[in-house]
Design a protein that fits this description.
This protein is an alpha/beta fold. The chain has one domain: Alpha-Beta Barrel (TIM Barrel). It contains 15 helices and nine strands. The strands form two sheets. It has a seven-stranded parallel β-sheet with strand order 1-4-5-6-7-8-9. Strand 7, helix 13 (about 260-265) and strand 8 (about 270-275) form a beta-alpha-beta unit. Helix 7 packs across helix 8 (about 155-165), helix 9 (about 165-190) packs parallel to helix 11 and helix 14 (about 285-300) packs parallel to helix 15 (about 320-330). About 45% of the residues are buried. The structure holds coproporphyrinogen III. Coproporphyrinogen III binds next to loops.
Amino acid sequence: MNLFLDTVRGSAGRQTPIWIMRQAGRYLPEYRKIKERATFLEMTHDPALAAEITLQPLRRFPLDAAIIFSDIMTPLEALGIPVDFTPGPVIREPLRSRAAIEALALRDEVAPFVGEALRIVRAALTGEVALIGFAGAPLTLAAYLVEGGGSKEYEHFRRFLRSEPAAMHLLLEKLTDLTIRYLQMQIASGAQAVQLFDSWAGLHDLRTYREYGLPYNARILAALADAGAARIYFALGAAHLLEAVAELPADAVGIDWRTDLAAARAALPGKALQGNLDPALLFADHSAIAAEARRILDQGNGGAHVFNLGHGIWPATPIDAVAHLVETVHAYRRP
Ligand code: CP3
């Protein structure tokens, strides 16, 4: 019996669980302290350090789940792709030819240090706090790999997708195989739920998402059906994609702050919803935070609902605002 896991799997009791995307990170002074003496790569590659950072927010707030401290780009070294963080991911040699994609070979072991970190965290958690593993969705990973880093328009990536569709599918195939192996390893190491982050899905129109996003996401989620972990799919700016997202074999879908939860509920029958407070709301005064949280909680009432932000928490977020949000969500009782 675990409130978060039961809710993700669709049971709707009187209490709503909460965790926060990017809950371990720069808004916490204890994270910034570690950051003074370690690089992001060191933090993610050292299992004891990654486990410590994962647990930091849990010591401050009674959250219902922990998410392993890592990055969506972390497993790419198993395809022979080095990634720097400045702080966003940077690819030294962006993939812009079919030959470069053909040359990518998947190694046997995918980020074993993440598995070790998961084992440490799982042993430190009581049964009440669930442990979430995660990965990036292939189309979102491909955006970074072809572009070379973050971007507003993802011009190189979108050009490549249109001019080299077969090479793009080959890249997505390889990323799908990597991601299945990576998430299976995380579940075997103690992750009780996994979230697939598709942060750049919203760049694409529905037809393009149906061809380049949906089949790979579906293959990953289907491969995990019997692995024993709950499956969450999160896409950003994806209101126009929900009719396709509804077809994914996921237990829950993360909704960003621009999409109304009631509309998402209607578009996603049979799925638990996760979200969707605007991260900027945490800069408002406490009464405004509580009022908006309760509005979202009321909206989530039509079925299973995990409270979260609509996207990752911002580095400048006041800590007392987070404490107030968690308190408000936990004090709420569904009718
Ligand atoms: O508690 C947690 O959720 C932290 C674990 C986590 C990180 N990245 C740590 C991180 C998770 C779940 C991610 C996912 C991630 N990474 C996504 C998907 C979620 C989303 O925000 O859409 C994406 C797109 C990335 C790629 C990425 N990595 C970016 C854009 C950046 C830089 C800007 C930023 O948002 O922080 C990173 C670096 C990164 N990943 C940092 C952290 C804590 C910052 C490193 C630092 O402290 O300097």
